[in-house]
Design brief:
The complex is a heterodimer of chains A (about 80) and B (about 450).
Chain A (H helix, E strand, L loop, with lengths): L1 E8 L4 H9 L4 E8 L4 E6 L3 H10 L7 E14 L1
Antiparallel strand pairs in A: 1-3, 1-4, 2-3
Chain B lengths: L4 H15 L1 H5 L8 H30 L7 H6 L13 H26 L2 H21 L7 H28 L5 H20 L7 H9 L4 H28 L6 H12 L3 H5 L2 H24 L7 H8 L2 H12 L7 H24 L2 E9 L4 H9 L4 E8 L4 E7 L2 H11 L6 E12 L2
Antiparallel strand pairs in B: 1-3, 1-4, 2-3
The chains are: A alpha+beta (about 80), B alpha+beta (about 450).
């Protein structure tokens, strides 16, 4: 199961948050954004329970994250 | 700009080593069947790459207890469905690229080389680049910007000059280039295009991604096993294919190659001891692939990705082959024409680099879609230029488009002339990607 999480961050924390997100093994992609959100992370897990565990035990503890928005990927199309 | 110089040199060395292949094998064709050469090169290389992969896993596990690589998982993942290649299992994907990509493209390359000359065969490499460009345009993956058009024009001019000079050389040597040689060259370009398009359509399973995140060197044994399986399965499939050709009611050049191949199987170990075969195995297969995989794993985030540099530097192979064929084996190619072709091909490299650097606007577009139209809309949007991937989501938004375009003009066109004309899109949010961090 794949999910994307978009983050809104506080001021001057982007580098620190990105480093902490990169250190989580289940997160396979991290990118900085310009727009409503500051960072996007893509996570790969086995179950929704695992997603909850990683979110509550690792991601939610990162200082500097103001808000997050999670979407589960149902299907992917590629050229 | 920060260059990954250390690993760029890996790509350059690999291409230089490949460029010696036609020079090394050209004289071998009169003594040994093309099929025997291919069989030995890929079968032995496959075994060696496999052994290296397993050894690397053991060495890693011995030195690095915390970041162990599981051999069992490495093999179990072969059953994983490749979502980027028609959802077939990984091992079937490896068989396909092994036989139709690697083995057949080298087979047609050698046949063309046997029937024509080394410079003439370089046309095949240049045609492959043009075919891939048209394929990418056809599927709306890339657009023909000014750089791309110019590099196709440069390649076309180079092809014309090489053809003209090769025909002249054939006339002087009284050894005409046969039509069959050109047909083999076209077949080489087609199979080679298939190889380049499909070889990167590999997908990682969930467990593999986790393993890569824990230990990035997991990718090396995985890639080596992929190539080993592709090589070995390719040459194994070559045997029934050869038998089939041998029993065809009509005789062709390929039939003679097949008969010679079966006759030579008795002397296989003697042939294996020849320096040309050893060069092909060690210096044209094992070392280049190791260099490439090492570069790929250690690639640092820079302006361009590994794949982009790989396609830019791929032109080193035909350039150096052309130079070495003139300098080492005295192929006919007047100096002034050689300089012109080299200049054209170097300009092509620069144009290709410019195209890749310019092609740099990345964005994620989030869409809310009207109920009941998700699937049809996704397939429709995927056809638009710039849309590389689409994820269907559960959450606030229904779709996320992964977009990469050449310019803001193209981006504006996608948003305002394409997406905003779709009634089923209720809301649209753009997020530009600043930097890919992982």
């Amino acid at each position: 199961m794949r999910a994307i999480i978009m983050f809104k961050l506080g001021i001057n924390v982007i580098k620190k948050v990105i480093e902490e997100l990169k250190a989580i093994p289940e997160i396979k992609k991290v990118m900085s954004l310009t727009g409503d959100y500051d960072v996007l992370a893509e996570i790969e897990v086995e179950t929704s329970e695992e997603l909850f565990d990683i979110f509550s035990e690792k991601i939610d503890l990162i200082d500097g994250i103001i808000a997050s928005n999670t979407h589960v990927i149902m299907k992917a199309w590629e050229k | 700009m920060k260059l990954p110089s250390k690993y760029l040199s890996n790509l350059i060395i690999a291409n230089l080593l490949w460029s010696f292949i036609p020079i090394v094998v050209k004289n071998l064709f009169s003594e040994i069947s093309i099929l025997t050469i291919i069989f030995l090169r890929f079968f032995i290389s496959g075994i060696i790459l496999f052994v290296i992969a397993i050894s690397l896993v053991f060495v890693n596990n011995y030195l690095n207890h915390e970041k162990r690589i599981s051999l069992k998982e490495l093999f179990l993942n072969l059953r994983h469905k490749n979502r980027r290649f028609y959802k077939i299992r990984q091992y079937n994907y490896y068989f396909l690229i092994g036989f139709f990509g690697i083995i057949l493209h080298i087979f047609f390359y050698f046949l063309a080389l046997k029937k024509t000359s080394i410079p003439f065969v370089m046309i095949g490499m240049l045609m492959t680049i043009i075919f891939i460009s048209f394929y990418e345009k056809g599927v709306n993956y890339e657009k023909f910007d000014i750089f791309r058009i110019l590099f196709i024009v440069m390649l076309s001019f180079s092809i014309l000059i090489i053809t003209f000079v090769s025909l002249q050389g054939a006339e002087i040597k009284n050894d005409p280039i046969e039509l069959l040689g050109f047909i083999f060259l076209v077949l080489y370009s087609i199979t080679s295009s298939f190889l380049y398009i499909s070889i990167d359509r590999d997908s990682f399973s969930k467990k593999e991604l986790l393993n890569i995140n824990i230990n990035k060197y997991y990718k090396i044994p995985r890639a080596l096993i992929k190539m080993a399986i592709a090589f070995i399965s390719g040459v194994i499939l070559l045997i029934p294919a050869s038998i089939l050709i041998a029993f065809l009611p009509f005789e062709t050049d390929i039939t003679q190659e097949v008969i010679a191949f079966f006759n030579e199987l008795r002397f296989i170990f003697v042939i294996l001891g020849r320096w040309e075969i050893i060069y092909l195995i060690i210096f044209a297969t094992i070392i280049p692939y190791l260099l490439i995989f090492l570069a790929r794993v250690n690639w640092e985030p820079t302006n361009l990705t590994y794949s982009q540099w790989s396609s830019i530097l791929g032109l080193i192979d035909p350039i150096s082959t052309l130079i070495f064929s003139v300098l080492i084996v005295n192929e006919f190619f007047p100096f002034e024409y050689l300089i012109i072709v080299i200049v054209f091909l170097v300009i092509t490299i620069v144009l290709r680099y410019a195209h890749e650097v310019k092609n740099s606007i990345r964005a994620k577009i989030l869409l809310k879609i009207k109920r009941g139209s998700l699937k049809l809309i996704s397939i429709k949007i995927l056809k638009f230029y710039g849309v590389r991937e689409i994820d269907s989501l559960i959450g606030e938004y229904d779709l996320m488009l992964h977009v990469k375009v050449n310019s803001f003009k193209d981006f504006h066109y996608l948003i305002n002339r394409k997406l905003k004309f779709i009634d089923e899109i209720l809301d649209l949010k753009v997020q530009f990607v600043d930097k890919i961090e992982k």
